[in-house]
Amino acid sequence: MKLSLIISIYNQTEVLQKVLAGVARQRRTPNEILFADDGSGVPTRQVIEAFAARSRLPIRHVWHADDGFRKTVILNQAVAVAQGDYLVFTDGDCVPHPRFIADHFALAEQGCWVQGRRCFVGEPFVPQFAPGRTPVWLWMLSGRITGAPKGVRWPLPLIRRDTRQRGIIGCNMAFWRDDLVAVNGYDEAYTGWGVGEDSDVGTRLYHLGRQRKFVYGRAITFHLNHPQAPRDHHAASLARLKEVIRTRQVRCACGLDQHLRAKNA
């Protein structure tokens, strides 16, 4: 199995450098890393180029111009060029545990997709958070890191198989590439920062017949908290998601297929 790590990013170079420090500490490496870049500027490109120069892995920087929140579009573009059989998604504000990739290799199972968890580094403490140097347990005890049960790699994982809506988050998901192709990837009708796009793709995978492996104690990320962007599209996105649930839709109309055609043209 070849595993592609896809990191969605938009500016925030100081935070991204912390994420890349976490990626560099992986006990088992992915087969490639793709940056799905929703229009970041030159400083972000320079950070990625510097990381690529130090890495032995294939690095792809998939970029489009900044035209508002178009995460679904750039994710589909990254999926279209990914070489892996299995795709792990995270965000550019989430530092992976050193065994994040190894855990996702171990959790991969045909007929399922995986939902990992995240704990939270408090916004005031993000500048001091340093992968490999920060005493995580002490930070949890002092309250600098919250959601501690989601940030501990337990002796045995807790895995629940389900098709629920609760707990679908895009910063720690993994899918078989063929399954994403079957549902036509992310629905590009979701625009604007808010909710819905991650739950939508998870829901359509449910309708395809794929259960979720909802995992605690493995595949952990540390979310570096930051101010939330306005959720102006919340109501429209939620209405769209409810319709997908009601109709048991499997494929979205505007999704991955157009990028696959462009790649093969």
Brief summary:
With 265 residues, this protein is α/β, with parallel strands linked by helices.
Architecture overview:
The chain has one domain (3-264): Spore Coat Polysaccharide Biosynthesis Protein SpsA, Chain A (Alpha-Beta Complex), CATH 3.90.550. The protein is 34% helix and 22% strand. The chain has helices at 13-24, 42-54, 71-81, 100-107, 136-142, 177-182, 197-208, 234-247, 257-264; strands at residues 3-9, 32-37, 59-63, 86-91, 94-96, 112-115, 118-121, 145-146, 158-162, 172-176, 211-216, 221-224. An 8-stranded mixed beta sheet has the order 3-2-1-4-10-6-11-9, sandwiched between helices. α1 (13-24) links the parallel β1 and β2 (32-37). α7 (197-208) packs parallel to α8 (234-247).
Topology:
Layout lengths: L2 E7 L3 H12 L7 E6 L4 H13 L4 E5 L7 H11 L4 E6 L2 E3 L3 H8 L4 E4 L2 E4 L14 H7 L2 E2 L11 E5 L9 E5 H6 L14 H12 L2 E6 L4 E4 L9 H14 L9 H8 L1
Parallel strand pairs: 1-2, 1-4, 2-3, 6-11, 7-12
Antiparallel strand pairs: 4-10, 5-12, 6-10, 7-8, 9-11
What is the helix content? 25-40%
Rg is 17 Å
| Biggest pleated sheet | 8 strands, mixed
> Could you give me the name of the CATH homologous superfamily?
Spore Coat Polysaccharide Biosynthesis Protein SpsA, Chain A
- CATH hierarchy class name: Alpha Beta
**H/E element sequence:** EHEHEHEEHEEHEEEHHEEHH
> Shape from CA axes?
globular
Mean pLDDT: 95
- Write down the oligomeric state: single chain
> What's the helix count?
9
Q: CATH fold name, please?
A: Spore Coat Polysaccharide Biosynthesis Protein SpsA, Chain A
> How many individual β-strands?
12
